[in-house]
Amino acid sequence: MDLGEFRNLIATVRGEIGKVVQGQDAIIDLVLISIFAGGHCLVEGPPGTAKTLLARSVSAAMALDYRRIQFTPDLMPGDVLGVNLFNFQTNQFHLTKGPVFTDILLADEINRAPPKTQSALLQAMNERVVTLDGTDYSLGPDFFVLATQNPIEQQGTYPLPEAQLDRFLFKLVVDFPDRDTEIAILSKHARQALQSDMRNAGIRPLVTSAALAEGRALIDAIHLDSTILTYVVDLVRATRSDADILYGASTRAADALASAVRVRAAFEGRDYGLPDDVQALLVPALRHRIILSPSAEIDGRTPDEVLRNIMNRVDAPR
């Protein structure tokens, strides 16, 4: 596979997912970038904005295993990771693997689980390994978490700690579609049976584990010259000295942003990164990694607004 073939594959995958998820092209692109970059995605939006449908559609376009966990306040770490159960017939412990042992994991309403259960995902997301009773179990290189959360409800929810937020490559904010898109969605559904769902939409599983590995090999060869790397570092460092930001982004954030830039370049059929790639990915890569100052919050500023102001201040390489 060369860069041209890879670009065509991604365009075809976008089209397949677009059969079901309409009006979210930018979000779909960022999810695919995260998968090929080896990161994870946090999707935030009000109910009924196709967050779960997006995850199911992406999984349908990938020839990979997919499982879903509905996070609830009574969910325990063992319900996510699995447990060792004693078998009285063999007098041995037997591992019953939890839903985390998959390729694509939908962590639905992740902020409804208590911190103890949320932290169970930290090692899995960061190392792609689960440790149970002192034994390490690999989750494989394709492991990807797409977590959703509802920003409206506060009762019965637990805000994600900064350490866990930093494990997500992107935080994607899904809003209601525009009027024309909503009309198109309703028109499409009006021509279908009332009980039809995404599984009848004919999404083809195009991305196999081998294709994912080939794509990542191409991405590894993408060159980021010193000016692009310096630009990334300057933007991240600017978050640490901005008056509107109490705590800025980490070195891990800079490294994650640089990785995503390489993937976006490959998606465009280029073997080099551009400042445009950095600017397109800065906000989703950092909006969850900064904490605004109390004065900025009182003034009603948002992380997106503050990051765009920083992007306007820091000179891009020419």
UniProtKB/TrEMBL annotation:
Provide the GO MF annotations for this entry.
ATP binding; ATP hydrolysis activity
Which stretches make up the AAA+ ATPase domain? 37-178
Q: Sorted alphabetically, which CDD domains does this protein's record hold? A: AAA
Residue ranges annotated as transmembrane are none
PANTHER family named among the record's database cross-references: MAGNESIUM-CHELATASE SUBUNIT CHLD, MOXR FAMILY PROTEIN
Q: Per its record, how is this protein called by name?
A: MoxR family ATPase
Q: Which organism is it from?
A: Rhizobium redzepovicii
